[in-house]
């Protein structure tokens, strides 16, 4: 669901000051971007930029949360522009089409088109040095067009759309973050060339099987709210630090013993009856097991033996084992450094 815009400033003195000076009214820290280089018009509910001065020295232009449906052609003359934020407006495919031709701003490094009315990936091939591209929260049904995105790209966000297949990703060798959550994906595929990928977010799709295609650098990975029945497939992802698998149909904890760098494991809201295959993990800090079918705490100390000292947070509520009167006392005895059990935080 799209973020709600902040309350828009009135058309009085504050808005006038920002529009005239091209800067935020609040005092900026000494190391902030110079006001002549940075213009933030967030939440002014503007329908166009008529009357707004766009200094030629602008490096960053933020037009988040307005009512814009077309691009002011003056933006295409901002030769120093590196970051352009068009989030939460009314842009259609036709509305952003001029970007394809504005070679004067081809040095753009970050382009955010999040939360608009796009139905396809726009042609951003002129931005050869683009590092961050965000087209999330639109109506995009295909990743067709991603093949034209710069091979220098480090972060790609296309969440909350209607994408059905992972395609045209092969050239993104420098990609560090890939966010495709809340789409209609059924299969993990075409990831084998993303050898530098560190974060992969695929929550709220229709994926049934883990297929990481040989990726070994992943540090954060989410497959929450999919259709998994097994967690096998992560064995070779030894760099993994955070793994999120909640809201699936997993019945057994397995394939985790090699993940020696794992700090956060979320397997809540599954069908687990026991805690397994994590006794050798020595860096685990957060363990989420709530909303499963774990009957007893017996043996949990042994099951999490490697992380007895490092574990600080554990969730086991809404399991049969949490009904025991001594539930919290037993957990604190087993794991002496716990600071949180379920929603209870200890001073």
Automatic annotation (TrEMBL):
Keywords: Leucine-rich repeat, Repeat. InterPro entries: Leu-rich_rpt, Leu-rich_rpt_4, Leu-rich_rpt_typical-subtyp, LRR_dom_sf. PROSITE patterns: LRR (PS51450). It holds the Pfam family LRR_4. GO terms for cellular component: cytoplasm; nucleus. GO terms for biological process: abscisic acid-activated signaling pathway; protein localization to nucleus. Residues 1-31 are annotated as: Disordered. PANTHER family: NISCHARIN RELATED, PROTEIN PHOSPHATASE 1 REGULATORY SUBUNIT 7-RELATED. This is Protein phosphatase 1 regulatory subunit 7.
